[in-house]
Write a structure and sequence with these properties.
Pfam families: HEAT_SCC3-SA (PF24571), SCD (PF21581), STAG (PF08514). It is found in: Nucleus; Chromosome; Chromosome, Centromere. It comes from Podarcis lilfordi. Keywords: Cell cycle, Cell division, Chromosome, Chromosome partition, Coiled coil, Nucleus. Residues 331-361 form a coiled coil. By secondary structure, the chain is mainly α. The protein contains 50 helices and nine strands. The strands form three sheets. A five-stranded antiparallel sheet has the order 1-4-7-6-5, with helices on one face. Helix 14 packs parallel to helix 16 and helix 23 runs parallel beside helix 25. The longest helix is centred in the N-terminal third of the chain and has 42 residues, at 287-328. It is flat. It starts with 21 loop residues before the first strand and ends with a helix.
């Protein structure tokens, strides 16, 4: 790699520099200078600093101790390099006493004659540790950073070459390099040869890498081992220790410039060398060098920017002072003060020029090369620092020529780089004074900034929203109205930080502006900001047309407008019309939205948790948050217990408004409310709720009223007594009215002969009672008996209106659940439990009958209730005594009816209507389709829960799996979850269910093809079955060991199904299911290598039939055989085994069940022809095949004792009949194929 000449092009030559090469060995952190005294002293104990520091300190202690006694020197393996110029050649694997003695003598020499006292001491574990090198100082901490830099400056003034080599060593060590640095003086006669020396090479002979580059006035050669880990150097190491090192490293660079600005910074030697060093390292192909040197160079440039800013300030002050002094002089004589100021001014100008040159050299030599680096961390460093330069020194860097780099990197693929761009731009746009320089940038990159709010990285999207908010606040016309409307909609985003940032943008840009244009009230000159803000918020919500998301809108604004959103007094005053008369009255839409806002704010204040979809687990509230929550709940209870009755009375006929108002009492805390206030207003509140119940028949309103009573009564009945009495009184009235209506209904004969008014009244009472029975235990009113009679009348005699059956079915279900809950709590007598058992069976029979009702809605409701009830009364979660009484598992007939219902109502294709539809009709139809799809998903999920919890047989899932491919978009997630849960319950049975599904589909395909085995019969339907098998195989994942039993069972059942009926054909024709092997081959890649051989040996039993050798069968069998053979060696081994089989032999038929085989009787053996026993071939084949498998797979440990066991079992002792050997061999082979997985 060639170094960039621009970084050193303007550096002057130094003729007084020495001519001798110098070596710096950075192995294990030590420093050895070949031609100059060391600048290090060691007095440390080992084991006190982690990683590299431990080695550094430990070796220095050993070296110091070694100097006390000559015989105490130990051998050391030094990692060194081969220097290309021939001045020094070392082998990294050679043990040398000379290098050790040299280091020891230098350390002893420095300890006796220290040159400075700059090394800081630290106390570690009670012992004093003295840092030796700059790297050790930085890695230990920054408590004495300034004094260390001051000491280094003194050393530089005494011998700048030695001090600079110490600094070079520091940067090399910070890169994590444990190699050698060789420095040779730059000769002017070698100018033509410099470009060739500045290279990076690799020496294959020594295994070392070389980096040769110029650090004026030296040419440095860095040598390090080739196995140096690029991912393990100080800047990227994990842990707080190395994070602190990064901070200290950056601080060291800044302090170095700060302390050198008054002495050696402008000597045309120090900065030239540092810039050349960092530019050379930044061009390395080694990541550690590039990363470390880029960070150092960027921080160095940042320090120079801060310095030049301070110089400009001093220069400006000096010019002002000069003008003052100049105005005081007369033209008669020269003013000495003016000469001094003029001289000082020229000095500042020269310093400014020198720093400008340094900045140009760093920018061109490092930034321009590294801001597009392949490593995202390096790119992020460059962007972060250039943004810092723009805010610190805008006169120089805040120009389009520099802004373009940030604009370009907004399109970076890494989110960290994009994030640094946005954070840097926030610092720029946050200052109004810099806006005049951002016009072209804003025009060019505004669209990109707006689009970044949709970034896939959430933090990038949040910072983009904050940046756009700053642009909108500080610069007029920066964003168009269309841009603002797009950004406002992010208040409905799922990611809460993004929604909160959009809420701040909305509040500052839209809502707060209404306050600025709001004038004082003409009537009383009183400032009313909340009125305009509320109206602006309501208008925004109505214009957004997202009418079910007001909760998310309130949550987005909660952190920015708490005073507005908690002003419930003013909100209710607007609803009641008690606000100032000059204000415009609210429309019906405004009132509806305002009530929704009130409900959302009450919920947010009481729960102190984001709505569903925006928050994870509930966090623990702090003491301050708990205090705020209690205060808000007290305000809510005390205010709405007074106001809510008035609101209910005003909006009692509006279903939607009264429903939202009735949700507010569930956040009451009556214990926090004063007793006097509660007694005064509670009766009025309860009477209004009773009035709402009497006026409405809508389910949502009635359920809300029932929940209000339940909330005020308390879960354990510990609520206010007035509420319980009012509820009981209301239920008594409802039940009495229902009984009267039912008596009249039965007297009139029921059914179609009943009057419509009576039916309507019964329906109304049933809806109200059902709502209350769902939230309250009404068992003492004994509602199940009359409801069961009503439901049974529909089944046995005349049909009843659906509007009666629907609430009756639900109310009876609630009655049974409350009885079952009482039985679970052991509060019911034995007679009650027996009666409950009778009721459960009766109700299940009623629901089963309603599965075929004429109303689809009622059929689906009965199915959902039946599935839930079967889940509840199954053996799951019930005590032993209760199981005996109420256990009710569905019969085979009921399971068939449930499955048929799912097939008919979920997977059946609905007929399409072919007619021209208008736009509104199309929209309405789409909404109906979505509602129907949601209902179908609920039905399928309810049935799949029965399968997962073993309420119905797992084989029923095979009918569900058949529709996996066709209905993947609608029900794929439910079917996959069912498959996963059943596999967790029983792996083997789940595998049998999968193969059963494929077998049924194959048989259906075969019947449609007239049972043809020809390959031409494979059409698209067969390919669909094959694709379904592939999808099933993918569900097993990558862990073949975990799924080996299931996959082996699939292959076993699949092979048996493929060769089903082969014995009855007697070799005259092919089995009808042979092509099923093509489907089965999709599971072969999920078999382990040993299992493939066992499955293949199991396949060999069926492939000896002469009819199977026909060419038309070769395709299916060959395809499956190829999928099982793992390699050519396996294939040759198996083929050689096949050749040993006699050609006139019939196959071994075995009926395998559950992994074992049925033994062949001696009578069957006697009736079988003699050649079928294969007395000379079969035992030999088994032993020979097992030996081949053993020799080929000796490295596998899945069956550690399998080959030995099989060999012992298959050995034929003397005196044993061959017939018995054949029988035992076949039986053991079955166990190996199917049960091998279970043995391991």
């Amino acid at each position: 790699m060639i170094a960039e000449p621009n970084s050193v092009a303007n550096l002057p030559n130094h003729k007084n520099a020495g001519q001798h090469p110098t070596e710096i060995n950075t192995c294990n952190g030590t420093s050895s200078l070949a031609s100059s005294p060391t600048v290090c002293v060691s007095k440390i104990c080992s084991g006190q600093s982690p990683n590299l520091t431990d080695q550094i300190l430990g070796e220095r202690k050993q070296e110091t101790a070694g100097g006390e006694e000559e015989n105490g020197i130990h051998e050391e393996v030094v990692s060194e390099s081969t220097v290309q110029n021939g001045s020094c050649l070392r082998n990294g694997n050679v043990k040398t006493f000379r290098g050790k003695r040299k280091i020891r003598e230098q350390c002893e020499n420095r300890r006796r004659h220290p040159s400075d006292g700059r090394r800081p001491n630290q106390l570690q574990n009670g012992e004093v540790v003295e840092a030796v090198t700059l790297f050790e100082v930085v890695i230990m901490g920054k408590s004495a950073m300034q004094s260390v830099v001051d000491d280094w400056i003194e050393a530089y003034k005494n011998d700048r070459d030695v001090a600079l080599l110490d600094l070079i060593n520091f940067f090399i060590q910070c890169s994590g390099c444990r190699g050698m640095v060789t420095a040779e003086m730059f000769q002017s006669s070698q100018n033509c040869d410099v470009m060739q020396k500045m290279t990076e090479t690799f020496d294959e002979a020594t295994g070392l890498q070389y980096k040769k580059f110029m650090a004026y006035p030296w040419i440095l050669t860095v040598t390090w081992p080739v196995d140096m880990d690029d991912k393990d150097y100080p800047l990227v190491k994990a842990g707080p220790y190395w994070k602190k090192f990064r901070t200290n490293f950056c601080d060291f660079t800044s302090v170095l410039v700060q302390q050198c600005q008054f002495s050696i910074l402008y000597d045309n030697y120090l900065m030239d060398t540092i810039i050349s060093l960092l530019s050379g390292l930044a061009e390395s192909m080694v990541r550690a060098f590039r990363h470390t040197s880029t960070l150092a160079a960027m921080k160095l440039l940042t320090a120079l920017v801060n310095l030049i800013v301070s110089i400009d300030v001093s220069k400006h002050n000096l010019e002002r002072l000069y003008e003052v002094e100049k105005s005081r002089t007369t033209g008669k004589r020269t003013n000495t003060r003016l000469d001094q100021l003029e001289k000082k001014k020229k000095e500042y100008e020269q310093k400014h020029l020198d720093i400008e040159n340094m900045m140009n050299a760093i920018f061109k030599g490092t930034f321009l090369q590294r801001y597009r680096d392949i490593i995202p961390e390096i790119r992020a460093i460059c962007i972060e620092e250039i943004a810092c330069w723009m805010t610190t020194y805008p006169d120089r860097f805040l120009t389009d020529s520099y802004l373009k780099y940030i604009g370009w990197m907004l399109y970076d693929k890494q989110p960290d780089v994009r994030l640094k761009c946005l954070q840097g731009l926030q610092g720029i746009f946050g200052q109004k004074a810099l806006g005049c320089k951002m016009d072209l940038f804003t025009c060019r990159f505004k669209d990109r900034l707006v689009s970044m709010t949709l970034d896939r990285d959430h933090e990038v999207a949040v910072q983009a929203m904050k940046l756009l908010m700053l642009m909108s606040q500080n610069y007029e016309d920066a964003l168009s109205s269309e841009d603002c409307e797009t950004l406002y909609q992010f208040v409905y985003a799922t990611h809460r930080p993004l929604a909160v940032a959009a809420g701040e943008f909305l509040y500052n840009s839209l809502i707060v502006q209404e306050i600025e244009i709001e004038a004082f009230s003409k009537s009383n000159a009183k400032w009313e900001p909340n009125s305009s803000q509320l109206r602006a918020l309501i208008d925004f919500f109505l214009e957004s047309e997202l009418h079910s998301h007001v909760t998310y809108l309130v949550d987005s604004l909660w952190d920015w407008a708490p005073s507005l959103l908690k002003d419930w007094e003013y909100m209710t005053a607007l609803l009641l019309g008690n606000a100032d008369s000059h204000e415009q009255a609210l429309t019906d839409a405004h009132e509806r939205v305002l009530i929704e806002i009130i409900l959302a704010t009450v919920r947010e204040a009481a729960e102190f948790h984001p709505p569903v979809g925006r928050g994870g687990t509930r966090r623990i509230l702090s003491s301050r948050e708990k205090k705020i929550q209690v205060e808000d709940c007290t305000r809510i209870t005390e205010h709405f217990i007074v106001v809510l009755p008035q609101l209910l009375a005003k909006y009692s006929v509006d279903t939607e408004k009264v429903t939202n108002l009735l949700h507010i009492p569930q956040y009451f805390d009556l214990e926090l409310c004063s007793a006097e206030l509660l007694d005064k207003h509670l009766d009025t509140f309860l009477s209004e709720i009773k009035a709402v119940v009497s006026k409405h028949s809508y389910t949502d309103v009635l359920n809300a009223c029932a929940r209000v009573y339940a909330t005020l009564c308390g879960e354990d009945g510990s609520g206010h007594k007035k509420v319980s009495l009012a509820r009981d009184e209301l239920v008594d009235e409802l039940v009495h009215s229902l009984n009267q209506c039912l008596d009249t209904f039965w007297d009139e004969g029921g059914g179609l002969r009943a009057e419509k008014e009576g039916i309507h009244h019964i329906c109304l009472m049933l809806r109200r009672i059902t709502a209350f029975h769902h939230a309250h235990d009404l068992t003492r009113w004994n509602l199940y008996e009359p409801l069961a009679k009503l439901l049974g009348f529909e089944v046995e005699q005349n049909p009843l209106p659906v509007q009666i059956l629907w609430p009756a079915l639900q109310c009876a279900y609630s009655a049974l659940l409350w009885q079952l809950s009482s039985a679970l709590e052991n509060t019911s007598s034995k007679e009650s439990i027996l009666a409950l058992r009778t009721h459960l069976k009766q109700y299940c029979h009623i629901c089963t009958c309603y599965l075929s009702h004429r109303s689809r809605k009622l059929r689906e409701k009965a199915f959902m209730i039946l599935c839930d009830l079967l889940m509840i009364i199954s053996h799951q979660g019930l005590s032993d005594g209760l199981i005996e009484c109420v256990e009710y598992l569905p019969s085979s007939s009921l399971q068939s009816k449930l499955l048929f219902f799912v097939e008919d109502h979920v997977f059946a294709e609905e007929p399409r209507e072919f007619r021209v539809l208008t736009g509104e009709e199309v929209k309405k139809m789409e909404e109906q389709k979505l509602d129907a799809l949601q209902q179908k998903r609920c039905l399928l999920a309810a049935y799949c829960k029965l399968i997962v919890h073993n309420v119905v047989e797992m084989t029923a899932a095979a009918e569900i799996y058949k529709h996996y491919m066709r209905t993947y978009n609608d029900f794929g997630d439910i079917i996959k979850e069912t498959l996963s849960r059943t596999r967790q319950n029983d792996k083997i049975q789940s595998a049998k269910t999968l193969i059963l599904c494929l077998q049924q589909l194959f048989q259906k395909h075969a019947r449609s093809q007239d049972n043809s085995n020809s390959i031409n019969s494979i059409d698209s339907s067969f390919n669909n079955i094959k694709e379904l098998a592939r999808r099933f195989a993918l569900t097993f994942g990558w862990d073949q060991v975990k799924s080996r039993e299931s996959v082996a069972m699939i292959h076993k059942d699949g092979i048996e199904f493929a060769f089903q009926g082969i014995g009855a054909l007697e070799g005259k024709s092919l089995p009808p299911n042979l092509n099923f092997l093509l489907i089965l081959s999709e599971f072969s890649n999920k078999l382990l290598k040993p299992d493939k051989r066992l499955v293949y040996s199991y396949l060999l039993r069926y492939t000896s039939e002469p009819a199977l050798c026909k060419e038309e069968f070769v395709y299916s069998l060959e395809w499956y055989r190829t999928s099982l053979l793992a390699s050519d060696e396996d294939e040759s081994s198996i083929i050689s085994s096949i050749s040993e089989w006699p050609s006139d032999r019939t196959p071994c038929k075995k009926n395998l069940s559950e992994g074992s085989c049925t033994k062949t009787s001696h009578t069957e053996m006697a009736n079988t022809p003699s050649h079928a026993h294969c007395p000379s071939d079969l035992p030999f084949l088994a032993q020979n095949s097992r030996k081949r498998l053993k020799s080929h797979d000796s490295c596998h440990q899945e069956y550690p004792s399998g080959p030995e066991r099989l060999k012992r079992k298959y050995s034929i002792p003397d005196g044993v009949k061959v017939e018995n050997t054949v029988e035992v061999l076949a039986e053991e082979a079955d166990i190996d194929v199917v049960g091998a997985d279970q043995e391991t």
